Amino acid sequence: MFKCVLGVQFDTMKRFLPILLMLSMVVAAPATAQQLRVGYVDMKQVLDNAPQVLAGREKLDLEFRPRNETIEFQERQVQSMDDRLQRGDLTEDARVRMDRELREMRRNVNRQREDLRDELSFRRTEEVQKLEDQINLAVQEIARNNGYDLILSSPVIYADPALDITQLILDQLRLEYEADKRERSLR
């Protein structure tokens, strides 16, 4: 008789155990969710304003400026030749020669401009990839130091402005940049 009663109670308990677990999770979930601290980082703003990124842009500008100036000079030469052809004061033989030379110069300038654009794009990507680790470490440090459980980065569909910690990340990156700069100056 004792076994039978226990058997019935055990079977009943087995049926209600999943329901009881689900109910406890539903009741505990809001309490857990209220303790979860979430932050949001606008990566576009970080990549537009971080001092490391700005310094990288300046470095690339200095690196690519001479080539760009050469191409601009060649473009002015092409324009000058084109103006000369448009005037129509050349002999037929000279006009044909200049037209051929102009087409070749245009192709050369366009090829150089495209090569420069491709190389600059590659170098920008390379510079950003170098900074990704530093940005990620800054985000992790801010998260740990400020008690965040989860940090989301753009693009997201919506983030309440109260969750935005982008300025904290930029401040951290600024501090790191200044420290790196001081360290380099001591060398």
Give me the secondary-structure topology.
Layout: H1 2-35, E1 38-41, H2 43-49, H3 51-87, H4 92-145, E2 150-153, H5 166-186
Parallel strand pairs: 1-2
How would you describe the overall organization of this protein?
Helix content is 82%, strand content 4%. It is mostly helical. Strands 1-2 form a two-stranded parallel sheet. The longest helix is centred in the middle third of the chain and has 54 residues, at 92-145. It is elongated, with a radius of gyration of 33 Å. Residues 1-10 and 16-27 have low confidence and may be disordered.
CATH class: Alpha Beta
- Overall pLDDT metric: 85
The main β sheet shows up as: 2 strands, parallel
Give unreliable regions as ranges: 1-10, 16-27
Strand order of the largest sheet: 1-2
CATH architectural label: 2-Layer Sandwich
Helicity, as a percent range: over 70%
Q: What are the secondary-structure elements, in order, as H or E? A: HEHHHEH
- How many β-strands, per DSSP? 2
Superfamily at the CATH H level? Skp domain
Broad structural category: mainly alpha
Measured distance between first and last alpha carbons: 88 Å
- Domain module count: 1
β-strand percent reads under 5%
| Number of continuous helical runs | 5
Indicate the overall shape: elongated
Radius of gyration: 33 Å
The CATH topology is given as Protein Binding, DinI Protein, Chain A
